[in-house]
Each structure stands twice: as C-alpha cells, then as structure tokens.
Give the backbone structure.
Amino acid sequence: MAQNEEKQVISTEFDLLNKKAIVYVNTAYILADVVNSVAVDLEGILQRMSANIHYGELKQFKKCLVAAQNLKAVSKKVSSPIYDLEEADSALNDSDWLQEIILLIIDRVGDNREKANEIVQYLRNMKSELNLVP
C-alpha cells in the first residue's frame, strides 16, 4: 500500500472514530440528563409519599440524586471540548424524547420478555442512519 493511501485509510478511520466518539459523549450527556430528570420526578413522588417512607430510604435517594447531578455536570465538562453544547435546547429535547421512549418501553413491555425482544428486533430491522450498531 502506498504511503498516501495508508494515510488516507488512517484519516478515514480517525474520522469514523471521531464521529462515533461525539455520538457516545453526547449520548452520555443526554442519559445523564434523563437520569437527573427521573431523579427529580422521583424526588417529588417520594416527598408526596414522605409520611410512609423511612428516613434512611429518603436519605439514600437524596444521595442518588446528588450522584445524578454530579454525573450530569461531569459529562457536560467532558463533552464540551468535543461537541459545542450551545444548542442546549436541542440536547434537552433529545433527553426528554429519550426519557419518553424509555418510559413507554417500560410501560408497554412490563415483565414480558417476548415484547422486549420484539421491540429490539423492530429497531434492528430499521435502516441505520449512523452505522453505530450492527
């Protein structure tokens, strides 16, 4: 292989890895935002139930909420050099969309593993837009 062709192959591989890295970092940020949103929602539910919840359980939940907030802050710091998050509204829309999808799947599937497999198969049969998952 000629040196120019080798450099072009390395450059193409780097470009593909860079695109994949951007998607993964953004996914981590969006998932951290989903975790934070779910934690905030759960905190409200637990506060309404507080008369029936033991103090120790509420204290453990608050630790989880702080961990989710820390994860969100750290993932934002990690993602900022790679991907400019000035489009915060778009990121929030993505995390709201992902949270809705996750909750719909949980609600519709319940404990039915067969339904879960059907959803996975349906998604696998769709044409890939980014070629991240075989």
The chain has a mean pLDDT of 77. The helical segments are 3-48, 55-79, 88-109, 113-125.
